[in-house]
Each structure stands twice: as structure tokens, then as C-alpha cells.
Amino acid sequence: MAKRYIIIGSGAAGLEAATAIRTADSLGNITVVSEESWPYYSRIRIGEVVDGRSEPDKLALRLPNWYDEQKINLLLKSRVTQIVHAKKQVQLADGQLLDYDSLLIATGARPFVPNFPGSDLAKTLRFMADAVALRQAIVGVKRAVVIGGGLLGLELAASLAKAGLAVTVVERNNRLLPRQLDLVAGELVLELLQRQGIDFVLPASTAQIRQENNGLSVDMDDGCSLPADLVLVSAGVRPAIELAQAAGIEVDQGILINDQMQTSIPGIYAAGDCAEHRGQLYGIWPASSEQGRFAGRAMAGLDVTYAGTTRMVTLKVAEIGVFSMGKTGDEDGEVQAERSGDDYKRLVRDENGVLIGATLVGDLSERRHILMALTAGKPYP
Question: What average pLDDT does the structure give for the chain?
Fold first, then answer.
């Protein structure tokens, strides 16, 4: 009898798991259940839908016929409401019960909105449905405030600016992208974004959002206020663990998994932004993809040992190239940093001269060679 696999979530972890399962098990029945209306897409590019540069279907990372070719049953607009692990079943919102032999929870993460007065007046951007709704919401809007200067916040700010809005970003840290960039790199990105017409207020904390004169006002802790027609919060995400928690699966910040991607209940695995491995929440696409591949192989019965993912970010932030990988702090090793015009390079080496971390802003032409050196644990250059 063919093995039955159910994957909850159609993001990077879920689809990589489905691909790995199909590679290892050509006969298994694979079902992917997703609350979204669109199949697997590039989440970092959904800002292009907001400003009209692209359409939802054009951001798909798998062609529609791929699912048929791989014999994967994709259930869109479907929500799992309960995991009945004693019967090895999941229940959908319409009451349908699906049987499984191996189950993967890849529910991802949801936007985190700080609990301050008026936070319900703000919008968020995480899913394609948010982008489609926001595209309509900005019609006729002149001023927008984005609370949060992280990756998605900056990309969102750039998209709104491209759409003709006057945009101000409020960031509570004293620099942009503090998780990915050092102070100099963060200041360079800030400078380049300011040239694109985006204003910044930092460091600053939001006290409240209130309605004022047919618009909104974003009030800071220091008493300053920013008028706006539209306010968006991009203050990070939190793992979507509610479904697992309700099923009695052990959770902390995320769903706890071991090196074999297993949760505390046999036959149930987790991967991606919802999963916590060795105390780590990654929240980056490369980790979600890698975890999904490991989980898929494990579900198909292969021996796997996931030892973690090297943190790496490669993307365009408002058309500005950014690459960060490995250990990049001053305390991590010997630092060599240089800025040339709008380009910045920072290399971190250990006591033996081996490259252990790197940051690039602007010119990313060395990225491939740096990546190879970091992966191989060799000196560079």
C-alpha cells in the first residue's frame, strides 16, 4: 500500500519536503494543504504586486502543471483545524478528514504586531492576499508610515515609494537591518534608501496610532508625531505553533524538533519558520528550504541528520544588493572592512585566517567565491 504523506503549508519548507518525498518515494500519495489562494510563490517579491510591477501569478515558483507532473495533490484555500494524532488524521475546516502515515507541519510564521493603542488601525504584509489587498488600499493615498526597518519593511517602503507615496520608516534600533548588517553597512543602506526619497526616523518607538483629521497619526514615545493616510507594521514574525500546540506537540518559541526533524509525537515532523531546532529559530528562506528537504527525506524513511543551517541572506533591498553569511560580528574574529563609494565589503576571519563570515552591500560580484570559501572553510581571498 502506498504511503500517505500530508504537508500542512505550501511555502519553501512544504514544497521542498514534497519534492524530496517524491524523489525518494515515487509511489507515495502526497497532499499539500494550504490556506492561501496562490501556490508557492516568492514571498520577498510580493512588494512588486503592491506597486503594480508584477502580478500574483507571475511570482509563482512552480508552474501549475508541476504539481500534476509530480502527482502532488495541492489543496488551496483549505485550513487544517485539528491534528488527531491518535488516529493519524487531520481535520479540515469543512469537516473533511485526511489520513496520513507521515505528517509535516510547515505552517510558517505570522506577522507580529506590537500591542500598543491603535495597532488595529495598521495593516501588515506577509502573504499574497495582503499584497493584493494593499494594492487596492493605496489608491488615492499620499502618505504612508512603515513601522519596522527589517527586510520586508524596507522592501515594502520601497514599493510604496515606487507607487508614488511619500514614505517614512520608523525603526526602533539605531540602524537598519541590525540582524544582518553591521553599523557601517546599515548606514550605507540607509543613505541609499534616502536617495530614493524614503524618510527615516530612528531610533524611535511607536506609542500609539490614532485617527486624526480624516487620516492617521503615528505618535512616538518622545512626543513626536507623523501624519499618515496609511500605516503598516513590519515588526517581524512569530512562528505559527497554535495547531501543533493544540495537538499536544511540545513547543517553546517554535515547534521543537530533533536532528531528524521529528516533533515530540512519532510520525509528525516540522520544518521552516514554525520549527525550533537546538534552540534556534531561523526565519530565513535558505533554512526553511534545507529543513524541508531533510524533513521530506526523513518522512520517506531515509536516515538524516540536520545539524543546522549557516545563516545567509542574499537579496535586493529596494534594488540594493545585500549579502550576509556566517559570523559577522566584531567579536567573532579579525575584521577587514572597506567602503568604496556605494559598495561595502566586510570579511571576518578566525585566528587561522579562515573566512568565517562576510557582508556585502552594493556590488555582489564576489558573492559566489566568498560563499565557496565559507562553505569549504578556506581562507579568502
Answer: 95
